[in-house]
Specification:
Blueprint: H1 2-7, E1 9-20, E2 26-37, E3 41-46, H2 52-59, E4 67-72, E5 75-76, H3 86-89, E6 92-95, H4 107-118, H5 124-137, H6 154-165, E7 172-176, H7 184-201, E8 204-208, H8 212-218, E9 221-226, E10 229-234, H9 236-240, H10 245-252, H11 254-269
Parallel strand pairs: 3-8, 3-9, 6-7, 7-8
Antiparallel strand pairs: 1-2, 1-4, 4-5, 9-10
Helix pairs in contact: 4-5, 4-6, 5-6, 7-8, 8-11, 10-11
Length: 270
């Protein structure tokens, strides 16, 4: 049983400390622990400055922590040479805030970037075929492929960024504020897409968000960042039973009550 639990942990963060400044004096995380289970959608929430994106960047190797350990797929990711981390990096995809598309490349060319990085020399016709498939997979029209990011709406840019994140058929997907800036209808559609892809592709999803509707609609568990660490991880019902000021304010305030009502209406329709 214990061995099975070990195998079901895709990401394990222990004793993480992150800081900024010449001496790392501005501490963002201190003693942060977190486990992400295989096949779940884990929502990550916290107030401004709690380091949600810093945590994600630490896990994917863009931020070097001061202390602690990070394992992804059972492999240590801290301090490894780039060539040593290639096999792990192939197994995850990342959607950064706003999509982070290359403005001088078309949507199709953006999707091809990670494929060319890890599999140089592939036939161009095959690259374009793969990109076209990923574009359609994320709900974009086929004619979106030749377009540049400036020609897309905000929601389409997010989907194009998601298509690039899925380019290598990853097992693990990182989403950083995927519904930020979208109207409620667009945000709900993106949530539905995320849940559909997670089920169809068997993905594990690490999802940073401030959107309460997203948490209620698609997240299996939620990790709460406060006081420089993860103060709680669980289902929303489990979090609501905890006595912590930030959790109380976040989940039981006006927006929290509105999200509950929205989730109950959605449940009644199904």
């Amino acid at each position: 049983m214990a061995r099975r639990e070990q195998e079901d942990v895709i990401i394990r963060v222990q004793g993480l400390k992150n800081g900024f400044g010449d001496q790392g004096e501005h501490v963002v995380h201190d003693g942060l622990d977190l486990e992400v289970r295989r096949g779940e959608i884990l929502g990550v929430v916290g107030g401004s400055g709690t380091g949600k994106s810093v945590l994600m960047r630490s896990i994917i190797g863009l931020q070097t922590p001061i202390e602690g350990s990070i394992e992804v797929f059972g492999e240590n990711t801290i301090g490894r040479e780039e060539t040593e981390a290639v096999d792990i990096r192939k197994r995850w995809g990342v959607l950064f805030q706003g999509g982070a598309l290359f403005s001088t490349l078309t949507v199709s060319e953006n999707v091809q970037v990670p494929i060319k990085e890890f599999y140089p020399g592939l036939d161009q016709a095959l690259l374009e075929e793969i990109a076209a498939y990923k574009v359609v997979m994320t709900g974009l029209p086929p004619d979106a492929g030749p377009k540049f990011p400036a020609e897309l709406s905000g929601g389409m840019k997010k989907r194009a960024g998601l298509a690039r994140a899925l380019a290598l058929d990853p097992e693990l997907l990182f989403l950083d504020e995927p519904t930020a800036g979208l109207d409620p209808i667009g945000a709900a559609a993106f949530d539905e897409l995320t849940e559909s892809l997670q089920k169809t592709l068997g993905l594990t999803v690490f999802l940073i968000t401030h959107d309460l509707d997203t948490l209620y609609a698609i997240c299996d568990r939620v990790a709460v960042l406060a006081d420089k660490r993860v103060i709680a991880v669980g289902t929303i019902d489990e979090l609501l039973a905890l006595d912590h000021p930030w959790i109380e304010e976040y989940f039981k305030g006006p927006r929290g009550r509105a999200a509950v009502a929205s989730a109950e209406r959605a449940q009644a329709r199904t």
